[in-house]
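Renewal narrative, Specific Aim 1. Our central claim is that a sequence can be written position by position from structural information alone. The example that follows is taken directly from our test logs and has not been curated for this report. It begins with the C-alpha cells describing the chain, in the order in which they were read.
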C-alpha cells in the first residue's frame, strides 16, 4: 500500500518530488503499526512524524481562529503548497490584534 502511495505522490507532485523527502504522519498507537509498515517506511527513506495522541479536550477545530480561516478558505483550490501557505499568510495578516485577543479569551479554562 505504501508503494502505491509513493507512486501517487510522484505522479501528483512531479516538480516538488525533487527534494526526495516524504514526511509520513501516522497514529502513534504502537499496536496499530505493523513491522512490515515500519520496514517499508525505513526502506523508502521516509521520515516518520511523531505526534502526541489526540486530546479530547481540544481539537484544532475548537480554536476560534481556525473556524474563521476555514470560512476564508472555503472553496479555494491550490495547485501548489506555496499557494495555500500564501493564502493562510494573507488571512493571518488581515486579522486585527483584537481578533486574536477574542480567540484567546474564548479558550476553555481548565
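The sequence written for that structure reads:
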Amino acid at each position: 500500500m505504501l508503494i502505491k502511495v509513493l507512486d501517487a505522490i510522484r505522479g501528483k507532485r512531479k516538480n516538488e518530488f525533487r527534494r526526495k523527502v516524504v514526511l509520513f504522519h501516522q497514529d502513534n498507537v504502537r499496536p496499530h503499526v505493523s513491522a512490515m509498515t515500519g520496514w517499508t517506511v525505513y526502506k523508502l527513506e521516509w521520515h516518520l512524524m511523531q505526534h502526541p495522541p489526540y486530546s479530547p479536550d481540544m481539537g484544532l477545530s475548537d480554536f476560534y481562529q481556525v473556524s474563521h480561516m476555514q470560512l476564508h478558505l472555503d472553496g479555494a483550490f491550490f495547485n501548489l503548497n506555496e499557494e495555500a501557505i500564501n493564502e493562510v499568510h494573507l488571512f493571518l495578516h488581515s486579522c486585527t490584534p483584537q481578533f486574536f485577543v477574542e480567540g484567546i479569551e474564548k479558550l476553555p479554562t481548565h
